[in-house]
Amino acid sequence: MSLLDYFRSSKVSTASLAKERLQILVAHERNSKNQKHPSYLPKLQQELLQVIRKYINVDLNAISVNFEQDEDQETLEVNIVLPDDSSKKNVKHTSFNHRK
Amino acid sequence: MARIIVVTSGKGGVGKTTTSAAISMGLAKKGHKTAVIDFDVGLRNLDLIMGCERRVIYDLVNVINKEASLNQALIKDKRCEKLFILPASQTRDKDALHLEGVGRVLEELSKDFDYIVCDSPAGIEKGAHLAMYFADDAFVVTNPEVSSVRDSDRMLGILASKSRRAENNEEPIREYLLLSRYSPERVRLGEMLSVADVQEILSLNLLGVIPESKSVLNASNSGVPVILDDKSDAGHAYADIIDRYLGINKPHRFIEEEKRSLFNKLFRGR
């Protein structure tokens, strides 16, 4: 390190680095803790698919079930992609809201 | 009915036992009948910090197992007649504690104490869980350092979800921040998180800042809660904390560097 470097000393303080890292980490950890997906989701997805496939020949991965949790409401979102040949491309979207 | 305070942090070595000793002595000196319980089964140390290690006969596990009565196990402090210590067992492991037993002990203590201070072990396992489960207030001891702040945040999540108050949908535990081992000088140099930084990250009510102080080690060396050292800055910090907790409005201290005269700087060194 040259003498010039010593006087320049424009390095970021480690405290502000610590703060930044913590803010990101804490926000992330709080989020992942709150977003506990109910354990029935995979089974629900499977059974829904079975029912739909009785009537429409949809793809095995044409359905997605999502669960989201906000401050005061839970949303169960079901997405079904209908096959191309039955008229046009069609996305069925249903969601169920539940206010806590 | 006693008010139950848990002194907790998640991380070890941040000053939980020092704080438990200081605040229980502080509350007792204000005339409140106070019991302080060590929940660190297997690694008890509160007795040592309180200076009563040679007077331990029965412990918390003995009382839970009904091998001794509470009166037999409680150690009366020699400096303050309002203060009683319930040590942890040194020979058992943490499984010796269980919810029903701890609940029973706290309920019995509640009948004739004003405050019960639960000194939590580090970690988030059984001992720590039981120490906080029945709490009304939580003193979250944090150092201005990344791992301690992160662990405190984790602890706050647990206080909000796994306590009796949370499970019964009662008013949540009141949480307070005690920032210990603080060095205003290092904050000025940009080497340490400031009080404001930690408060912003944890969004907690600040009960007090305890400065990094030589008197803490001196106090534990001699088995005297640091709050009894009236020449010590850490002792003053704890005394302020007690006042604020009891509703007396005291401005925060030890956040700014002490102004020192040129004479002091030249001749006294650091």
Structural write-up:
The complex is a heterodimer of chains A (100) and B (270). The longest helix of chain A is centred in the N-terminal third of the chain and has 21 residues, at 14-34. Chain A is elongated and about 75 Å long. Chain A is an alpha+beta fold. The model of chain A has no long low-confidence stretch (mean pLDDT 75). Helix content of chain A is 42%, strand content 27%. Chain B has an eight-stranded mixed β-sheet, sandwiched between helices. The longest helix of chain B has 16 residues, at 146-161. The mean pLDDT of chain B is 94. The interface between A and B is medium-sized, with 14 and 18 residues.
Give descriptors for this structure.
heterodimer, A: 100 residues, alpha+beta, 3-stranded antiparallel sheet, 3 helices, 42% helix, B: 270 residues, alpha/beta, 8-stranded mixed sheet, 41% helix, globular
Secondary-structure map with pairings?
The complex is a heterodimer of chains A (100) and B (270).
Chain A: H1 3-8, H2 14-34, H3 41-55, E1 63-69, E2 73-82, E3 90-99
Antiparallel strand pairs in A: 1-2, 2-3
Chain B: E1 3-8, H1 16-29, E2 34-38, H2 46-50, H3 60-64, H4 70-73, E3 75-76, E4 83-86, H5 99-112, E5 115-119, H6 126-133, E6 137-142, H7 146-161, H8 164-167, E7 174-182, H9 184-188, H10 195-202, E8 205-211, H11 214-222, H12 233-245, H13 262-267
Parallel strand pairs in B: 1-5, 1-6, 2-4, 2-5, 6-7, 7-8
Antiparallel strand pairs in B: 3-4
Helix pairs in contact in B: 1-12
